[in-house]
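Lab notebook, design round three. We kept the backbone fixed and only want residue identities now. Task for the bench partner: fill in a sequence for the structure below.
Input structure tokens:
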């Protein structure tokens, strides 16, 4: 049975600063800190301008975008753009766009076109060239449930696409329109890039618990894009549970600071009992924010 995955963002991680590669705006966001749980140590995060110049995901432009039912509009610096949208939006069956991701230089806006289906939406990556106001689709098989973290920029010309159906990662070069599969990654279901490091999640170790429902384990990996090698051992983030359509899973929340030095995640434990909605119960949940390299 093909596994399909859903993300449940149960909490907002106020710890994270916003950057061009991870939100719909490339403007440096305000610094925020969190204080939960009380026993954890949280370190303030610098704005995008405090990132090293050598960091390929460091924003070099300011940009914004607003996506509405019939049009996409925004600015790159002082230049405005508007793209009228009509059904189907950019391709056969595309009913909406989501997961907007700016390239660090603001030249491209990546987004996921969503095609509704019986068991949820299927996503197809699209790129808007803001200099020509043209939209194109990346030729890749459909990605299940496009609300996951499946798009992230490595730099201003390379877009990472997490293919959560085949659990691999593809690098799309916008200059040559070529796709290259990253070596050694065979279990990725979502991910993001921070300063040359790909952080990706893995959902495995499934076991039947109650009434045919499954419990799994979620792991977070670090992958050096320059050397195409795994860094250290994976973090055990928390347990997952089957939820919704058959084969769908609810994953813990997680994020990474803009410089890639700290991760924040929701550690979850799944009980053997069912909740009022008929899904496996969450017996405990807390947040932690350790160093990505485990040094602190």
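Proposed sequence:
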């Amino acid at each position: 049975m093909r596994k399909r995955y859903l993300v449940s963002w149960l909490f907002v991680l106020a710890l994270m600063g916003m950057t061009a590669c991870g939100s719909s705006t490339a403007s440096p966001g305000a610094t925020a800190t969190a204080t939960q749980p009380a026993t954890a140590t949280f370190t303030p995060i610098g704005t995008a301008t405090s990132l090293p110049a050598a960091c390929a995901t460091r924003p070099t432009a300011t940009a914004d975008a607003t996506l509405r039912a019939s049009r996409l509009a925004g600015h790159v610096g002082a230049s405005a753009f508007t793209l009228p949208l009509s059904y189907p939006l950019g391709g056969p069956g595309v009913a909406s766009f989501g997961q907007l991701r700016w390239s660090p230089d603001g030249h491209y806006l990546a987004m996921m076109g969503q095609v509704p289906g019986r068991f949820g939406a299927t996503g197809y990556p699209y790129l808007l060239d803001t200099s020509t106001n043209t939209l194109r689709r990346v030729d890749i098989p459909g990605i299940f449930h496009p609300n996951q973290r499946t798009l992230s920029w490595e730099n201003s010309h390379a877009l990472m696409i997490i293919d959560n159906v085949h659990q691999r990662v593809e690098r799309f070069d916008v200059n040559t329109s070529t796709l290259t599969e990253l070596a050694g990654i065979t279990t990725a279901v979502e991910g993001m890039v921070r300063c040359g490091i790909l952080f990706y999640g893995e959902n495995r170790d499934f076991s039947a618990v109650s009434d045919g429902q499954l419990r799994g384990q979620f792991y977070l990996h670090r992958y050096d894009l320059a050397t195409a090698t795994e860094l250290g051992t994976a973090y055990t983030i928390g347990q997952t549970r089957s939820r919704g359509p058959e084969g769908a899973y609810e994953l813990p929340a997680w994020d990474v600071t803009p410089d890639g030095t700290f991760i924040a995640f929701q550690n979850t434990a799944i009980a053997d009992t069912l909740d009022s909605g008929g899904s496996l119960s969450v017996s405990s949940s807390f947040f932690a924010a350790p160093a990505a390299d485990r040094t602190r």
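Keep this in mind before ordering anything: Residues 268 and 285 are 4 Å apart (CA to CA).
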